[in-house]
Amino acid sequence: MKASMTKQTVTLLMAGAMTLSAGAAMAEKWDMPMAYSASNFHSATGAEFAKCVTTGTQGEIEIVTHPGGSLFKGGDIKRAIQTGQAPIGERLLSGHQNENAIFGVDSVPFLATSFDDAAKLWKAAQPTMKKVLEEQNLTLLYSVPWPPQGLYFKKAVESVADMEGIKFRSYNNATARLAELTGMLPVSIEAAEISQAFATGVAESMVSSGSTGYDRKVWESLSHFYDVNAWLPRNYVLINSDVWKGTSDAQKAVIKGCAELAEYAGTWRAVEYTQFTLNGLRDGGMTVGPAGEQLTNDLKEIGAVMSAEWLEAAGENGKAIIDAYNAMQ
Ligand code: PCA
Predict the structure, then answer these.
(1) What is the overall mean pLDDT for the chain?
(2) What pTM did the predictor assign?
(3) Residue 278 C-alpha to ligand 1 middle, in angstroms?
């Protein structure tokens, strides 16, 4: 990981703070919608980022985070930032894969299954992603991965055939497609609402990280977690490009520095949270472990179908990202 960044970032932050102290500007308050619970590591990282910007700009820009989908629900956050209803916010971009397949690059099954590979894929995708977002009046500030995605069920599952007819909670196109291909019934539900969905039987299964299962205490309704490492989707902190352009150079320097620190700290949190939350699921009474051979093989086949579909939808841009990623291996 980028160890040299810290020194650079601190210098950047200090330069920003020094310039700012030379002349006080008007104070602004930025509401920052976030979709996941306040206790989630993404939200904790966002809160630190907000504090860093507020302190670094000496209160010229005060960022106030609103976790748990309290200001805008996950699915509405991107549009809220684009239209200026919120100046800044965090979103799982793969939730908007229908707008542009590039947003789903982090949810291609078995393409990048470890933190190291997810970091490489992100590096390969970043220039294209930034360009696509810029065309939508969005400026990317930082991005943090979720831990690897595994499968949750209410029973032991040995193969894809065992999944037939199960009500499956989806959070983006890729997860809905996974349900279709495995004979399950997808129902789209925000993370903030899954505890209730599982308790009432609206959903009986999902693919997600140990972290989300732990945050939502899913052991109250579910019994099995298969650690299949399907992919590591990412959350992205975005700012409205007009708002970004309206900030001073000194403020930009502080925001960029804080964003870099947040990406670094958030990524480490994700790594450390992985085992911790799997242990938490186990302590809650769940059976946690790898998928059996049959299930693994069945899922690989489905992954191949989904990869081909993604490449087809993402066209030249998608191919260029995958080529750049493969060249880093
Ligand atoms: N948690 C989020 C997205 C990926 C993850 O691990 C969710 O389940 O909604």
Answers:
(1) 94
(2) 0.92
(3) 14
